[in-house]
Task: inverse folding
């Protein structure tokens, strides 16, 4: 967790666990070849106890001779504004503060006081929620810059250390109230389980360590699979056959990684994962699955993960001579006169200004002496279904003049060298 020469920031709440962690690291810093500092954050939930806890942290750090940085936030306000639980809001504020404090104090690692019993409670709660192997891993000993030095230490050992060193600490009375699920697990469920299995804490903690090893193996294989993907224009593309051939557990983890690469959070339910497995095996070249913050779809023999296309990108637009508009991923321009590279249209055959819109059901365009379905034209040119609405269609009184990158109605083409308008479609 820690290398010699590193600076470690202790997340110091003032409770027994964090006080023991800070005291232990500070007392052993010289032998470990590290320097220790601390950060205290008041989340604004128990305002009556906030000042006492802060003063306790200040006194401890003064006695240990280590730097301390303090901060505060308003978790209830954050919860109300973001429409999330107050505990989640407090956690987000706290971790944001700790990262900022670590940056200010030049810390390499941030140590939190999660211990064995915290991990056991997390494993039980995740199991009851129907979590996968990842959930059975419990609290990770190391996650990015965060480390948990006490993760294999029991609450009894922590209490013993605090007593032996006469450490002063604050007690959060809400920890003894049945006000949340974790407290119910801690105060009611685990005591009953210990009657049947006295070593249940040690056994579940060991089980989570085994789960972490299996989880790491799956993660490595999934990362190898994802490394073959292609990332372009906000789309993450991978071969459907590669996902189908992979072990289902590896493919499921790969789905999460691909979602994150596409800009989503990667939090997929079993329903989403089942749908993605089905998508990989589907014979439908334009099948799709809606995901949290993303969308996955077939592009013939590929699976593409991407953010949903913004509706604002396909709103109808108006364009006139010597003007330029943005339409989704395209730029459409009408220029007076004959310009190289443009499609030359006869001004006299048009009723300006013209419209730019997405394709519509039943759209047809006159080409090669007959009216053809726009939908069929796009299918014949293998344009992916999810991209079709993003292609600009230039219309004159709802009659299609041209479709970007596909074709145009030759009856609008200039047949003289005067009264010419140049049309440009450019991919942005």
Result:
């Amino acid at each position: 967790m820690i290398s010699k020469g590193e600076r470690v920031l202790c997340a110091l709440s003032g409770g027994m666990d964090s006080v023991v962690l800070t005291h232990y690291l500070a007392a052993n810093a010289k032998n470990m070849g590290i320097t220790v500092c601390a950060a205290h954050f008041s989340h604004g939930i128990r305002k009556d106890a906030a000042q006492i806890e802060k003063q306790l942290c200040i006194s401890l750090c003064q006695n240990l001779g280590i730097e301390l940085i303090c901060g505060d936030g308003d978790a209830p306000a954050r919860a109300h504004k973001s429409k999330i639980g107050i505990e989640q809001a407090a956690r987000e504020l706290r971790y944001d503060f700790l990262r900022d404090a670590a940056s200010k104090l030049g810390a390499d690692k941030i140590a939190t006081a999660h211990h064995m019993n915290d991990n056991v409670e997390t494993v039980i709660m995740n199991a009851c929620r129907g979590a996968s192997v990842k959930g059975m891993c419990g609290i990770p000993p190391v996650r990015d810059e965060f480390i948990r030095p006490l993760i294999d230490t029991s609450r009894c050992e922590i209490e013993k250390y605090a007593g032996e060193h006469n450490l002063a600490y604050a007690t959060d009375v809400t920890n003894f109230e049945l006000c949340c699920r974790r407290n119910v697990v801690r105060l009611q469920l685990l005591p009953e389980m210990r009657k049947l299995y006295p070593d249940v804490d040690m056994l579940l903690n060991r089980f989570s360590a085994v789960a972490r090893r299996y989880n790491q193996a799956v993660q490595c294989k999934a990362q190898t699979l994802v490394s073959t993907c292609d990332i372009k224009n906000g789309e993450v593309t991978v071969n459907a056959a590669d996902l189908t051939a992979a072990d289902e557990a590896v493919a499921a983890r790969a789905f999460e990684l691909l979602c994150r690469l596409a800009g989503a959070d990667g939090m997929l339910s079993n329903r989403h994962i089942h749908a993605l497995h089905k998508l990989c095996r589907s014979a439908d070249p334009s099948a799709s699955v809606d995901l949290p913050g993303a969308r996955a779809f077939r592009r013939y023999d590929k699976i593409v993960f991407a953010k949903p296309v913004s509706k604002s990108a396909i709103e109808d637009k108006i364009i006139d001579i010597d003007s330029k508009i943005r339409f989704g991923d395209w730029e459409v321009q009408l220029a007076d006169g004959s310009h190289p590279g443009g499609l030359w249209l006869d001004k006299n055959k048009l009723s300006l200004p013209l419209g730019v819109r997405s394709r519509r059901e039943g759209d047809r365009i006159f080409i090669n002496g007959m009216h053809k379905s726009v939908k069929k034209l796009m299918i014949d040119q293998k344009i992916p279904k999810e991209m079709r609405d993003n292609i600009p269609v230039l219309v004159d009184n709802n009659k299609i003049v041209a479709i970007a990158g596909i074709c145009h109605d030759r009856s609008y083409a200039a047949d003289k060298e005067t009264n010419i308008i140049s049309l440009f479609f450019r991919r942005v």
